[in-house]
Amino acid sequence: MAEEVDYYPMWESLGMDTASHDALLGAVGQMYGSMYLTQNNRPASTSYLDNFATNLHSGAIKEKLDAKESGKAKKIIGSFCLYVPEEIVTAAGGIAVGLCAGADFATDEVEKHLPRNTCPLIKGFTGFKLGRVCPYIESSDLVVGENTCDGKKKAYEFFATQKPMYIMDVPHVRTDETKQMWRNEIHRLAERLEQETGQKITAESLAEGIKVANDKRRALQRLYHARAFDPVPISGLDSLLTVQAAFMDDPVRLTGAINDMAVECEKRGAAGEGVAPKGSKRILYTGTPMAVPNWKLFNIIEKAGAVVVGEECCTGSRYYKDLVDESGTTVDEMLDAIADRYFNIQCAIFTPNPGREEDVIRMAREQHADGIIDCSLQFCTIYEMESFGMEQAADKAGIPYLHLTTDYSTEDAGQLNTRIEAFLETL
Fold first, then answer.
1. Were both Cys, which of 3, 94, 170, 203 would link to 77 (CB 3.0–4.6 Å)?
2. Running DSSP on this structure, what letter comes out for residue 44?
3. CA gap 427, 240 in Å, rounded
């Protein structure tokens, strides 16, 4: 039997509010139990996800701090967006981590610094910092932000008073000129990370960083394709958590676990074994990202009897759809290849942005989706705007479509459930 570890000294050394953190862990643990552990016929390999969730704020953080203390890693680099290339962080001797942003916390304190009508994700990460309850934020030596939307861009000005920050300038149009600008931005990030960690990026370290990230993406692609079976071998909830873990867990270990899940799901699919009965309504999700522990919408969809078979979002296919070209031999060639891969992410910040609509329709057909649910977090203007074009694209493709707007609270759960059940009845 493993010896129980006391993590309070670690949390206290990070300056965390342990009483508030206890309350947060209690609430998230209860939520996880009611959403994840009540699922029927989960693949056995998803026990890895349960272990990940259990250790998210404890063993997983200690592992990163121990790596830094032992010299295996130089610094912990946090981010809120998949535009921050983990390949470069790894090559510079850093540990890349996604930061807490998926729940409301310390809202009254947040609204002393940010407008009340700010999107929940921005208020969430600000609240986690002001409440001192996210060990990922507290342990980060540098936070790399990006100007993907006006809300984040301005909120980072306040966040920079709380943590050391570096901001990346992400283009919002795609031209040859902006592609070169983005390549330059990636090279500048590499220089900044070398300064932070004190470790020079070499062709060998960058090639390894690219391979580690690409291997993780290949594993996620394999799991995604296994979800095309009917019945579906793994739930949308477990698939969402797998991608959420990809931002926070040890990449090599997680890649092995994802491949294990993919193998089991392929076998389950071939044997006709699933998490929902054959013929259950199949939903493709698209919209704003879902940071841990934002599992509300998928829980409602799947408790209503449907199953989510794919996610076109930052905590979904955008994370793993494209690989970095591995043919480069010099640091400059590899940095350009990284830039080109990330430049192709179909985020709603781009104008025009037909690629996102094309990806949604393609994925809906690949996964044999019966309908598309497009969800925006409240006050997320760019995704709300794109919902009109997305609905037209779905109508043209003959795929039923539902747009929802929500936040992190449970107050609208009843309304969401009613609308989703009504939508499922039409399919």
1. 94
2. G
3. 23
